[in-house]
């Protein structure tokens, strides 16, 4: 199969989405979105057929089932790589079911990385394994709803892990230990204060290691935004309204440091995280297909920045994430239960002298041992020590002062 498609690879990868050639037996498969010219989103059966075709055609690709939704739809993880690598990027696509552009961008990215024979793709996959959850909320996607079939916002479930979707993502992060987590979303604009083609934001949570935080900002400011702007898309910081004349920030409406959002949890778990949001509404009067293509193509432009970052800043990312994973074993420093990198914490939001650990009752341990395990938190029976890689996460799960705690453990101060 690969020898037959070699002649069309470069053109398929370089062409804009609208110009991908018509499907033929010897060309890469196309999504339902592409087949329709942007008139409709890819259906679940089309997605499954598309992924199966890519998997069969490329030995770079493997697909595994990482969970099942309440309505019995598969949660899948796609791995793209040519060999084992020390660096991993995870794309999480459409946690909100009514935000489809990220899913479409992820599907075409899977194909392009699977089929790509250009030097840039080969170089990327030599150093970096790319993991993709192409539809993180299949039930919500089928119903065109933000939440899953129970109405739960998956992107507010990365502490409690009550949903099958949240649990599957937690297990992937625990087991694969990605160095970068890239979370694709969409937003509704508020002209003229909040209306860019793309917004993005790094982990603001103050428990993020400084070097990981710095790399996440570098990913945003020096790679993702310039890549999008080079293709003609406007960019900005998610959650910040700005004056349309001066560009000065005038109001924050989202993007705080709460740990239950994947963007922040990624930082707490020592990965370089970034949220990306494409604007749903068009800036000018255009047809729905044309606007839908803009939504998806802006995401694809930003992804070019992510992959450039992975290649050019890989060594620095490896150093930052590795050091952050080791730092918790020193068991020093405060833990923050509030505040953000742009919102200094109140004294009550800082645990200046954290306990050695937390003791759980037998009933508490029985009730929450699965969630602790999915997070990757190390336990000693019913005792949960702070001296471990995920040191800062332990109080966020078990301390009475943490706003989204799982349960309240008994602090152990006898160190």
Automatic annotation (TrEMBL):
Family annotation (CDD domains): M14-like
Cofactors: Zn(2+)
InterPro entries: Peptidase_M14
One Gene Ontology molecular-function label: zinc ion binding
Domain Peptidase M14: 40-279
A Gene Ontology BP annotation from the UniProt entry: proteolysis
A Pfam family: Peptidase_M14
UniProt-annotated stretches for the region Disordered: 23-44
Record's signal peptide: 1-24
Keywords: Hydrolase, Metalloprotease, Protease, Signal, Zinc
PROSITE patterns on file: PEPTIDASE_M14 (PS52035)
One GO cellular component term: extracellular space
Similarity section: Belongs to the peptidase M14 family.
Protein name (Swiss-Prot/TrEMBL): DUF2817 domain-containing protein
Organism annotation: Streptomyces cupreus
């Amino acid at each position: 199969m690969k020898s037959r498609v070699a002649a069309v690879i470069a053109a398929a990868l370089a062409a804009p989405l609208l110009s991908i050639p018509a499907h033929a037996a010897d060309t890469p498969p196309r999504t339902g979105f592409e087949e329709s010219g942007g008139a409709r989103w890819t259906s679940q059966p089309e997605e499954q057929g598309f992924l199966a075709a890519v998997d069969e055609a490329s030995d770079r690709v493997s697909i595994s089932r990482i969970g099942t939704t309440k309505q019995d739809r598969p949660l899948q993880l796609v791995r793209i790589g040519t060999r084992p690598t020390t660096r991993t990027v995870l794309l999480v696509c459409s946690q909100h079911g009514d935000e489809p552009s990220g899913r479409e961008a992820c599907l075409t990215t899977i194909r392009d990385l699977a089929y790509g024979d250009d030097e840039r793709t080969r170089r990327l996959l030599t150093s970096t394994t790319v993991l993709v959850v192409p539809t993180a909320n299949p039930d919500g996607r089928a119903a065109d709803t933000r939440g899953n079939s129970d109405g739960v916002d998956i992107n507010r479930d990365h502490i409690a892990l009550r949903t099958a979707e949240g649990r599957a993502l937690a297990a992937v992060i625990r087991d694969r230990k990605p160095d970068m987590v890239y979370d694709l979303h969409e937003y509704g604009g508020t002209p003229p204060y909040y209306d860019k083609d793309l917004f993005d934001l790094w982990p603001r949570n103050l428990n993020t290691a400084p070097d990981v935080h710095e790399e996440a900002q570098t990913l945003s400011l020096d790679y993702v935004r310039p890549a999008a702007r080079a293709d003609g898309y406007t960019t900005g910081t998610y959650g910040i309204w700005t004056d349309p004349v001066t560009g000065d920030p005038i109001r924050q409406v989202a993007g705080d440091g709460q740990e239950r959002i994947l963007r922040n949890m990624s930082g707490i778990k020592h990965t370089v995280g970034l949220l990306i949001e494409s604007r749903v509404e068009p800036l000018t009067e255009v047809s729905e297909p044309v606007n839908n293509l803009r939504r998806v193509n802006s995401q694809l432009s930003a992804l070019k920045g992510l992959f450039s970052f992975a290649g050019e800043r890989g060594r620095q990312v490896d150093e930052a994430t590795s050091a952050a994973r080791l730092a918790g074993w020193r068991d020093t420093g405060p833990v923050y239960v509030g505040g953000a990198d742009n919102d200094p914490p109140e004294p009550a939001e800082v645990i200046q002298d954290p306990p050695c650990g937390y003791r759980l009752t037998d009933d508490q341990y029985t009730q929450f041992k699965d969630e602790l395990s999915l997070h990757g938190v190390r336990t000693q029976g019913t005792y949960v020590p702070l001296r471990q890689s995920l040191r800062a996460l332990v109080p966020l799960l078990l301390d009475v002062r943490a706003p989204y705690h799982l349960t309240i453990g008994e602090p152990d101060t006898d160190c």
